[in-house]
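Researcher: We plan to redesign the surface later, but first we want a full-length starting point. Tokens attached.
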């Protein structure tokens, strides 16, 4: 149902339809709901804050002021948003949703000043009400802000915990999202940003049905379908959007994204080939097509496609991007030979010398030449430290790969030590087997030895019919004794 159709329906029909779509006929807690509130929620649900604001123009309820505050915040009119949530809180001071949104606005203002008081208060509110969806969503932001603050203050051991806590809060918001339709679009966008897909599909399905023609919303739905491995839904939604928009280039990019992450098949091959044929000079579509081909074991075809595009491209920035992808794809697939060929082919046109060193280090790592790889990566990190305006993203990547190489090298060294120890042990056991000659006495030899002992002889010789020596002997009762056992070579009798 489109927005324009809803606007043209009789007022009572709008109320019934919107109540059915949102699954709600009441507001937060026991707050009464007006028809303007229902309509505004519907517009906020699909990311239309201005239309929501227009729908609430004559609504004096606390819910109306709260939804106006959300609409104004999304339109970046923060002072006006603060005024509206203050009115809502004056009328319903105990309403948790209002309290949570008020803290969210305060966080936005205070973080600009480097203050963390509202962040701490938001987290405390969530701890008191862990299942409340609005508290959970805004607490996700609070934990992310705390993680940034901790990282800035070099409290690195705390950063991961804060980020994990934020993700868990978002999962709660996703699970409880049906009760806050006005926040569903925001939950969806946050899930895309943080790549959280646990339990997200029902929300994606709900919003997709409501706004199949909304390009930004469908793009987010396609991304989440793909992230959650629902590739058929992602491709179908993207294809429908592409066809409805007269196969526009904007929607072709969304379609290409969905295809690039899907499982390869003859149908997908045909779809991607047709898409690339229509937009052969679009570097993003070409890149995604190459990624798709490489994922289906067609690395040679993927690099050839990229190299042809590089040759035809005149924009230096786009050329650099395509070269980066042409070298990175074989690296990600663990094929150092192809990566080296691509680097050799494009070395002269790579503007960033540090980037060349980074690629060389990645190739050396795949060749298990750990120390040279670490040396090159260390130089990249050192160069960035000496140049604050340098490529921080590349330095961060270099640090990541240094950590990974060190870990892999330690594992390799441990394996080598284990193999060497096992080899030494085997050799030692073999040597001991040659040195230790174990003779198991038989019944007849025992009698001979006993007789000689009684006659005063001190020398014992094995009888001629003793079995041949071996590394393992069979005892008279059928058991086996290894060559590491100690067995006496003489016995005493006399009892």
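Model: Full-length starting sequence:
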């Amino acid at each position: 149902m489109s927005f324009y159709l809803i606007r043209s329906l009789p007022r009572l029909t709008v109320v019934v339809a919107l109540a059915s779509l949102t699954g709600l006929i009441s507001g937060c807690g026991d707050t009464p709901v007006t028809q303007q509130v229902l309509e505004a929620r519907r517009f906020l649900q699909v990311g239309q804050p201005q239309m929501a604001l227009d729908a609430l123009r004559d609504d004096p309820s606390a819910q109306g002021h709260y939804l106006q505050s959300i609409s104004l915040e999304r339109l970046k009119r923060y002072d006006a948003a603060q005024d509206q949530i203050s009115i809502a809180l004056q009328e319903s001071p105990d309403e948790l949703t209002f309290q949570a949104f008020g803290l969210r606005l305060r966080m936005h203002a205070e973080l600009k000043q480097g203050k963390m008081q509202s962040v701490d208060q938001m987290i405390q509110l969530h701890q008191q009400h862990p299942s409340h969806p609005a508290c959970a969503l805004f607490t996700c932001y609070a934990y992310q802000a705390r993680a940034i603050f901790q990282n800035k203050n070099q409290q690195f051991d705390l950063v991961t915990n804060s980020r994990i806590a934020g993700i868990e809060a978002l999962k709660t918001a996703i699970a409880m999202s049906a009760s806050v339709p006005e926040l569903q679009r925001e939950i969806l966008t946050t899930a895309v940003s943080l790549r959280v897909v646990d339990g997200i599909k029902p929300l994606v399905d709900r919003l997709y049905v409501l706004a199949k023609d909304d390009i930004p919303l469908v793009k987010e739905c396609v991304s989440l379908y793909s992230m959650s491995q629902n590739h058929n839904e992602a491709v179908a939604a993207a294809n429908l959007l592409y066809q409805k928009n007269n196969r526009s280039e904007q929607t072709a990019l969304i379609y290409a994204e969905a295809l690039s992450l899907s499982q390869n098949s003859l149908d997908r091959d045909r779809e991607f080939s047709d898409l690339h044929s229509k937009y052969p000079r679009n570097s993003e579509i070409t890149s995604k097509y190459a990624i798709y081909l490489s994922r289906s074991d067609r690395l040679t075809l993927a690099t050839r496609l990229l190299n042809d595009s590089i040759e035809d491209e005149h924009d230096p920035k786009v050329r650099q991007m395509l070269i980066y992808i042409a070298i990175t794809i074989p690296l990600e697939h663990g094929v150092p030979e192809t990566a080296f060929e691509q680097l050799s082919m494009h070395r002269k046109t790579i503007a960033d010398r540090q980037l060349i060193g980074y690629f060389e280090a990645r190739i050396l790592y795949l060749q298990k030449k750990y120390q040279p790889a670490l040396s090159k990566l260390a130089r990249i990190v050192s160069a960035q430290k000496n140049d604050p305006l340098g490529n921080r993203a590349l330095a961060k990547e270099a640090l990541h790969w240094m950590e990974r190489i060190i870990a892999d090298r330690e594992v390799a060294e441990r394996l080598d030590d284990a193999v060497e120890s096992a080899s030494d042990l085997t050799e030692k056991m073999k040597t001991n087997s040659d040195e230790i000659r174990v003779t198991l006495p038989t019944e007849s030899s025992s009698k001979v030895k006993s007789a000689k002992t009684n006659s005063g002889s001190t020398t014992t010789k094995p009888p001629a019919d003793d079995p041949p020596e071996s590394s393992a002997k069979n005892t008279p009762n059928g058991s086996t004794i290894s060559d590491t056992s100690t067995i006496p070579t003489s016995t005493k009798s006399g009892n």
